[in-house]
């Protein structure tokens, strides 16, 4: 039941939001020809929109809203970049050199260089290729997102409740892999979990990049996005 609940809530969100939708068959980038500052402005707006979607998605995970409200906010503040990175990797698979931040907006190596995001692109591209090699199912992907949310090293009011939630997600992932992978279940689950340190490393790259953009001031960033970039005491 936990596996189905977590999986179904994510599937429902996929139909309502663009944040989990796959790349379209249209190879054109609707923003071709705009300058680097405009690219960053659009990318910033996409991140802000996806942050709103992630907050709504998290509230549908069974057990998440049972946590104290302050704990919910701290978990989201710490994990949002990891969750969005997993979503980007999933959306950009199969990887063709393009990272799809939306169905009609992608960055390749050239455009990433133009807007000063080559370090972020390189990390994302490497992670997306690893994600593709693992061949995670939709259910495994949804559970990895939930695990990224619940596996935060941050001080909470009720750490026992978080441990219970995390154990539920881990058990659901274990059951999912056992059911679908049979003989290769142990090896496959190891590969899924080994992806998470790379996702956390990408988190640092994302925060460093957008903090620099915000300090530069050339791109207007929405209030929610700026607030989520603020460091959280651990």
TrEMBL record:
PROSITE patterns listed in its UniProt record: NR_LBD (PS51843)
UniProt organism field: Culicoides sonorensis
SUPFAM superfamilies named among the record's database cross-references: Nuclear receptor ligand-binding domain
UniProt cross-references to Pfam families, sorted A to Z: Hormone_recep
Residue ranges constituting the NR LBD domain according to the UniProt record: 1-232
Keywords, sorted A to Z: DNA-binding, Nucleus, Receptor, Transcription, Transcription regulation
GO molecular function annotation: DNA binding
Record-given protein name: CSON011011 protein
